[in-house]
């Protein structure tokens, strides 16, 4: 820059000291030099200017020593850049053999630097704002998928125009669990995970701790996207564990500062890694919690949990199925409301002991059901403790012992029947001896009467009836002993018609008492069976008895036998009331009965089905309400 300097001559005669005083009084930093630009004098403003910029007058003199003085009457400027980066402007003006020097700061440079600094501050503020919003988003993410979506939004806002890939891996195995890509990925580029050596060093990640074959370290960042020219990456590291990586790539022609981007990306990755770690921990805890809930809910055992206030907090499916009560009906209720009134006094000390931390085993009680009934259960209790060791609640695990108790009753009853059977066998033996004598004497008297001329025919008829009744009693007692005798497992060849007839004989009193009739339709060509006789008799006795109980007086029990292919078939048909379709699928279940209380145990048909199936056969039922029921027994024929 050049400018013209005009000399202003003062009026009057001023002394040199006056000019010196004027020079020193100038506010503008100034100095006087000779044509060789050697400083002759500097004013106070120049000294203050140098002190303000942390330099000495010698620095200004050194800058002038390398410059050239302007022509007489001309001026020009020279720049002096300080170590601090500040740029000073020295304006040199010459008049004759004297050069005046004025100093100032280059305001244009300062303004430019302020603009750059302002932009940097704004960018930093924007970056911090995005990172802050990202921190909120990842903290609120409900799972890994939501977290990856939040990170993707943050990366797009921080680095517009770049292609990027977010990969989340399992910290133990290195297996890929989530992937998000913004751009066109190359085929197979997402695995294995390649980490940039410099980024690994900055995050203090231990290479030896990385899963082999899943993660590798390279001196260069590989390009994952089509059309990219450069790339930066940052691993997601938290607690010295690798949770993935973020790769970012630049398309051709994009003006960006990769070094700056890498610094920001590492900062973002550090924040994201902690969030990913927490998300995975939450996912694991959620999985474990759900697994334990499912385990308790679907366990093949009765599980009940109450808190310190004796309120039910867990009531699993097994208990719901047993009692008919849903979880919604039970949760939050007092435990005592689920137990029969007669059990309240027994339950109180057990629950109190459990609340003190004492375990109780094999505690039997009765729970109420939805329909007002009761079921007998056996529980073992255990206390749940808090971290300080205080009892937080009680868990009870048990089983339904209703069937067991019923079976115990049946066993006792069976033992009584066995004792009665033994007594009956002794009675039968005592009956057989005199009845044999009665039959023998009756036969002898009948024969004598027939040989005596003029014998009364009426007496002979009476003797015949005595003889027939005696043989009938003997035959019945013989069959009764055979039926009561414990059955042998070894099958024998039996006649199906004879087995059914024997069962009818045993049921004569039931038929008579029900005042029904029996119709028999036997096929004469049914081959023999390989079966345990007493067991088959038991099946038909039970079916005939059930048929009699299902009919009103005057009903008819129809018994038929026939051969169908390789099977012998027996049908027991009644003209009773029939079975409700809702109960038809359950009649073979143990202890299920449609008979009134005290008339049936619900075990007969279940036992019959087991006997038939043990013989390789099938027992089926057909029924129509108001028309009757038909039971069909199919048994394999004996091999020739």
Which characteristics define this entry?
640 residues; alpha+beta; Beta-Lactamase; 5-stranded antiparallel beta sheet; 17 helices; 23 strands; 43% helix; disordered N terminus
Please, could you describe this protein's structure?
- By secondary structure, the protein is an alpha+beta fold.
- It has four domains: 16-105, PAS domain (Beta-Lactamase); 116-286, GAF domain (Beta-Lactamase, 2-Layer Sandwich); 303-485, PAS domain (Beta-Lactamase), CATH 3.30.450; 490-636, 2-Layer Sandwich (Heat Shock Protein 90), CATH 3.30.565.
- 43% of the residues lie in helices and 25% in strands.
- The protein has helices at 16-25, 44-52, 57-65, 107-140, 144-158, 197-202, 258-298, 317-323, 327-330, 344-355, 402-451, 457-484, 496-506, 508-514, 533-549, 581-584, 604-614, and strands at 30-34, 39-42, 75-81, 87-95, 98-105, 163-169, 176-182, 193-196, 215-218, 228-238, 241-251, 302-307, 312-315, 360-368, 374-385, 391-400, 492-494, 517-521, 529-531, 556-564, 567-574, 618-624, 628-636.
- It has a five-stranded antiparallel beta sheet with strand order 2-1-5-4-3. Strands 13-12-16-15-14 form a five-stranded antiparallel beta sheet.
- Strand 12 and strand 13 form a beta hairpin.
- Helix 5 (144-158) packs antiparallel against helix 7 (258-298), helix 11 (402-451) runs antiparallel to helix 12 (457-484) and helix 13 packs across helix 15 (533-549).
- The protein is rod-shaped.
- 23% of the residues are buried.
- Residues 288-358 form the PAS domain.
- Its EC number is 2.7.13.3.
- Pfam families: HATPase_c (PF02518), HisKA (PF00512), PAS (PF00989).
- It comes from Corallococcus interemptor.
- Keywords: ATP-binding, Kinase, Nucleotide-binding, Phosphoprotein, Transferase, Two-component regulatory system.
